[in-house]
Amino acid sequence: MSTALTLIEVSPSGEIRGSAKMLLAAATRLGTPVAVLSTTPGDHSEHVKQLGDLGAHHVFIAESTQTDSLLATPAVESLAAAFSHFETSAAVLVTNSVEGREIAGRLAVRIGGGLTIDAIDITLVNDRVVARNSVFGGAFDVESSIHGGPAVITLRQGSIDEEVTAHTPDLITITLSLTSVAAATITSRTEAPTDSGRPDLRGAATVVSGGRGVGSKEDFLLVEQLADALGAAVGASRAAVDAGYITHSLQVGQTGTIVSPQLYIALGISGAIQHLAGMQTAKVIVAVNKDPDAPIFDFTDFGIVGDIFTVIPQTIEALHRFRH
Amino acid sequence: MKIIVLVKQVPDTWGERSLDSATGALDRSAPDNIIDEISDRSLEVALRHKDETGAEVIVLTMGPASAAVALRHCLAMGADSAVHVLDDALAGADVTWTSSVLAAAITHEGFDMVIAGNESTDGRGGVIPAMVAEHLSVPHLTSLSEVHIAVDVVNGSRETDYGTLTVTARLPAIVSVTEQSPDARFPSFKGLLKAKKKPLATLSLSDLSINPETSFGSTGRSTITTVTRRPARTAGIKIVDSGNAGVELAEFLAAGRFV
Ligand SMILES: Cc1cc2nc3c(=O)[nH]c(=O)nc-3n(C[C@H](O)[C@H](O)[C@H](O)COP(=O)(O)OP(=O)(O)OC[C@H]3O[C@@H](n4cnc5c(N)ncnc54)[C@H](O)[C@@H]3O)c2cc1C
Ligand SMILES: Cc1cc2nc3c(=O)[nH]c(=O)nc-3n(C[C@H](O)[C@H](O)[C@H](O)COP(=O)(O)OP(=O)(O)OC[C@H]3O[C@@H](n4cnc5c(N)ncnc54)[C@H](O)[C@@H]3O)c2cc1C
Which of A142, A264, A299 to mutate to test the interface with B (most CBs of B within 10 A)? Predict the structure, then answer.
């Protein structure tokens, strides 16, 4: 059986990121799963055990002292080295993130692979990798098959969730030479604050978003309070981001994050087509807007024509009452 | 300094975008095509550097004949010249083809720096700049919210899913910018007049010494096999607040077990 390589993401503090489970489960569908780790030299026995528990049959560790100071290229070189080590790899799986896509793109050029970006499902059909994508904000589902070369795929985070059998993996360790590679140097790094206590926007079951109608940075607290009352992630329209109410990383829409939660609540958002492109596949959509003709109401399961500053405090209070 | 800006024409996101269900190709006849907003911003970054230093700015696109309109718009904004890769063999090109053709055209023109958008609003692949960089064996500094260009080095801050990085590289290099970079200028009347006289070159694949069969025959491709349209959403309950809508919303959420 051919192998399927996965690029395991490691945080700067050395922990394996949550995407490893999805990637190894997906790889198990396509071949013998291999975990590829691009990292600085050190003791990786804990990583190897953890990756075995997630189903890896082989762990391929490519070490370099420069791994943390060069942009994307160390991972490209590590995957390329693993690809030539396991001569039979039919697929390479990477997380769909800004960096993951670029790694996949450079690797596909390097190994002559066919590239599929942001797949939400993959299967093997007659020895060919078939990927499913959701495009134009979920308006279309597209299936594509990769042929003529190895498949390089970026998988949307949270798209595949299944249990696989644990293994005791074999370990291959190599030393990468990165002295002559064309790469940008990372001169400093600020980790995004992750301790808001709220779920991650991308995978959250409930999202509460605020738009220009929220009116100010101070009043955005109202959006956050409703989110906290529901255990939800916070999102925003581009108009709210541009006005400085909230950071760009929480923008939902065509040029922001695409979400597909069980429940999406839009507060003071008109429903421009570029915003809808980021949330219209939510199971249930609720909106509060004082304009009865706001386009968002064509998409809502429950729409309220009203002022968010009178409606939402009442909702929050009622939710607290229900709880007790 | 010679800066090449990669610009793309895309279906206007204000219209309804559609895919041909037989071929999976973008239905380019349906909506209006316009220059991608992110391409405008990429050009703005180059033009600001030109304003300061007199750098030469070339805009490059690969696309159908109608894409020339986008190039004229860029010339009116202030680019010095434009290059249009136009060839029937490129219909339905995927990212693999697109990146190698763009890389060949960039090499053909010569460059110190390439500026692109972080992702297009139609394909949303976000991979072309990195793939072109691999073809050209130069560093990529992508998803920059801020760019600083000096004589032989470029640096900037990069937004990622896990935080912000500051990155730097010697030129030649490829940069891509996000929508956090400044709004683009509008073409002036004088710019529009001047644009008519600026050079716009059209290159075919043979001008770039690319023969699709031999150049792409041995690389993997992804081909669309099926396309399904999701059913459209229909509007549900809509109430007008008469003093109690906040409570009704809480009840709706409780009934749906969201509480
Ligand atoms: C290329 C491109 C990409 C884009 N990408 C995105 C994207 O990713 N995400 C995105 O969101 N947008 C995007 N946009 C912008 C989009 O076109 C809209 O401008 C934006 O979504 C509008 O945000 P909004 O609904 O918050 O603001 P507005 O359209 O101004 O709507 C504000 C709404 O708030 C209501 N309101 C005001 N006060 C109150 C109140 N007190 N109570 C209740 N309601 C109130 C008003 O009735 C109005 O409907 C993009 C645009 C382009 C051209
Ligand atoms: C809905 C949809 C889904 C698609 N999915 C896939 C897929 O999974 N795999 C695949 O191989 N192809 C796919 N394609 C085709 C793909 O969009 C095109 O190949 C496109 O040329 C490049 O990808 P992009 O638009 O995602 O570019 P991105 O990488 O998002 O573009 C970033 C930047 O690169 C530059 N650039 C991109 N294209 C051009 C160009 N033609 N001329 C000049 N500069 C350019 C611009 O500066 C742009 O801002 C898809 C197309 C559509 C419409």
Answer: A142
Per-residue pLDDT, averaged over A179-193, amounts to: 87
Q: How many CA atoms lie within 13 A of B77 on its CB side?
A: 29
> Which residue range(s) make up the domain with A61?
3-175
Instruction: Quote the number of domains for chain A.
Output: 2
DSSP letters along A132-176, please? EEEETTTTEEEEEEEESS-EEEEE-TTS----------EEEEEE-
Contacts of B251 in chain A (CB under 8 A): 318
Using a cut of 0.90, tell me whether the model's pTM lies above it: no
User: Which residues contact ligand 2 via a Cβ below 6 A?
Assistant: A 115-117, 133, 135; B 6-8, 26, 36, 38-39, 42, 60-63, 93-95, 98, 102, 116-117, 119-120, 122-129, 222
- Report yes or no on A155 lying in a domain: yes
Query: Tens digits of per-residue pLDDT, B28-40?
Result: 554 567 888 899 9
User: Which one-letter DSSP state was computed for residue A47?
Assistant: H
Q: How many domains does chain B have?
A: 1
Check residue B211 and report its DSSP letter.
-
Mean pLDDT over all residues of chain A? 92
For residue B228, is it within any domain? no
Closest partner CB to B258 (pick from A110, A114, A206):
A206
Checking ipTM against 0.85, whether it exceeds it is yes
Query: What would the pLDDT profile of B49-63 be if each residue is shown by its tens digit?
Result: 999 999 999 999 999
